[in-house]
Design brief:
287 residues; binds 3-methyl-2-oxobutanoic acid
Length: 287
């Protein structure tokens, strides 16, 4: 019998962090590191450093220059989700369910989520909403589809919310959002993204729910943190208050493009090492 491991995609998948391993971080207190990713190469670069790669519907603004996440389709999420799965081998890949693909009810949500998992190889989906989504989350979870919840600021509801302001100010909003988080956790979500809420609410949710919370504009005491990768890399001049750029890639790309353009215009690029020469035999036969 050969002792060499056969190339087997199942063995590779088994090396990924699993949904139960992420859920167990609630009690182990090891912080969950999550970033968004939309392409295979970015997934490859982030994989070793992240526990979860989220194929967020924020690809609307980040990749496609759209004003909101509303125009994103299931096919777009599938194309980018499959790319991120191909580019990674360790992180759990979670894919956002786009607007209009799940809100009608549990059956519509199951059909959409099944496509997302079947056609990408990802292991879980994320959907936005609170109390009103509990039935759907439970329906999916009991049928083999792990669900990450998303409460607080829910960008797919921008037209109802009237903008992207932080949530949880005032007793009524605070307790409604607390109820949302509890309902999502009780329905079986394995983790919950808590976006743009006041710190005391993020802390109460984290203490009150049985699954890990992953904060974005929330609290350092959440069980994990997530940022949009392009925000983290400093690709945009204007960002939300909660973004900390860990690099200034926009500036570095601008400098590289300037330098490339100058080299082309001055005919300093390509250099001798970048061009092909005829092989000796070819030269002989062409004489
Ligand atoms: O779409 C997205 O990138 C997200 C994160 C901001 C959590 O939902």
């Amino acid at each position: 019998m050969s002792t060499q491991a056969a190339p087997n995609p199942v063995a590779l998948a088994a090396r990924r962090l699993s949904v139960p391993a992420i859920a167990a971080r609630k009690s182990s207190h090891e912080p969950i590191v999550m970033l968004t990713a939309y392409t295979a190469r970015m997934a490859e670069l982030l994989d070793a450093h992240c526990d979860i790669l989220l194929v967020g519907d924020s690809l609307a603004q980040v990749v496609y220059g759209l004003p909101t996440t509303l125009p994103v389709s299931l096919d777009m999420m599938i194309a980018h989700g499959a790319a991120v799965v191909r580019g990674s081998s360790r992180a759990l890949v979670v894919i956002d369910m786009p607007f209009g693909s799940y809100e009608e009810g549990p059956r519509q949500a199951f059909r959409s989520a099944a496509r997302l998992l079947r056609e990408t190889g990802a292991a879980a989906v994320k959907l936005e909403g609170g109390v009103e989504m509990a039935e759907t989350i439970s329906f999916l979870q009991r049928r083999g589809i792990p669900v990450m919840g998303h409460v607080g600021l829910t960008p797919q509801r921008v037209n109802v919310l009237g903008g992207y302001r932080a949530r949880g100010q005032g007793n009524a909003e605070f307790s409604a959002l607390m109820d949302d988080a509890l309902a999502v956790a009780d329905a079986g979500a394995f983790a919950i993204v808590v976006e743009a809420v006041i710190e005391t609410l993020a802390d109460s949710i984290t203490q009150g729910v049985k699954c890990p919370t992953i904060g974005i504009g929330a609290s350092v005491r959440c069980d994990g943190q997530v940022l949009v990768v392009d925000d983290m890399l400093g690709m945009f001049e204007r960002t939300a208050k909660f973004v900390k750029p860990f690099d200034n890639l926009a500036e570095r790309i601008t400098r590289a493009a300037e330098s490339y353009a100058a080299s082309v215009r001055s005919r300093q690029f390509p250099e001798i090492s970048h061009v092909y020469q005829a092989a000796a035999a070819d030269r002989a036969s062409s004489n």
